[in-house]
Design a protein that fits this description.
This protein is of the alpha+beta class. 34% of the residues lie in helices and 31% in strands. It has four domains: 2-39, no CATH class; 46-81; 84-158; 164-227, SH3 type barrels (Roll).
């Protein structure tokens, strides 16, 4: 009797575990529900079903928006955010016709390096670059204006050094008195104070006199002078 009793207990336990996993034997009825969903296979999950439903609705919305002005505006806005300049470097500044200066630059957008030039940087700057011919980028009018404006603003800011004390590294620099217009020579190693930076000149103090730097002395200031910390 004990052997039969143990066999029946084993049989009951085995059938119960099969029912929990919906692996019913042929002799048992199909389970209507499962107490522990983790033991079932492909059980219905209301949370996953809500996610699937939401994704389906989003796909339907995108499909209906495709080709509309709203979709184009959204796509353009996202593209503009991704196409910002990541880095910008000045390669050289060249004097043209003893009057204007052209700035040659390289910059990075979306990990791609591009080259360009800003003509007549001090008076009427114009940006030319291969980036505006790369149709792998979103060439929206507002993006072109934004990039050109950012490049010019960055270079002009660099050409306006911060006020402070500087030492001349170059052999000699010519400056002109703001009161009399008289020319003064600044020798190598001379310390000066940069009082104010303007778009077309720099105001400096040399000894007791106030002078201004123009032309090459203004444009190449960051190369010819070193700031004293």
């Amino acid at each position: 009797m004990s052997i039969i009793k143990k066999y029946n207990e084993f049989l009951i336990r085995e059938m119960t575990e099969f029912n929990l996993q919906r692996l019913n034997p042929d002799s048992a009825h199909i389970s209507i529900h499962v107490d522990d969903p983790k033991l079932s296979i492909d059980a219905f999950d209301k949370h996953q079903d809500k996610i699937r439903g939401a994704l389906s609705r989003i796909n339907d919305i995108l499909y209906n928006l495709k080709g509309t002005s709203a979709y184009s505006a959204l796509r353009g806005k996202l593209a503009l955010e991704e196409q910002d300049i990541q880095s910008l470097r000045i390669q050289r500044i060249v004097k043209v016709n003893n009057i204007s200066y052209d700035v040659y630059i390289c910059f990075t957008i979306q990990d791609e390096e591009y080259f360009g030039v800003i003509t007549n940087i001090l008076n009427n700057p114009e940006v030319k670059s291969e980036v505006f011919k790369d149709f792998d980028l979103y060439q929206a009018k507002e993006w072109v204006i934004k990039i050109k404006g950012l490049i010019v603003k960055t270079i002009k800011t660099w050409l306006k050094p911060e006020p402070g004390e500087y030492t001349l590294l170059n052999d000699e620099v010519i400056c002109y008195s703001t009161e009399t217009g008289k020319m003064h020579r600044i020798e190598k190693g001379t310390q000066i104070e940069l009082v104010k930076s303007l778009d077309d000149k720099l105001i400096i103090k040399v000894g007791e006199g106030i002078c201004h730097l123009v032309g090459d002395n203004h444009v190449y200031f960051n190369w010819w002078f070193e700031k004293i910390d």
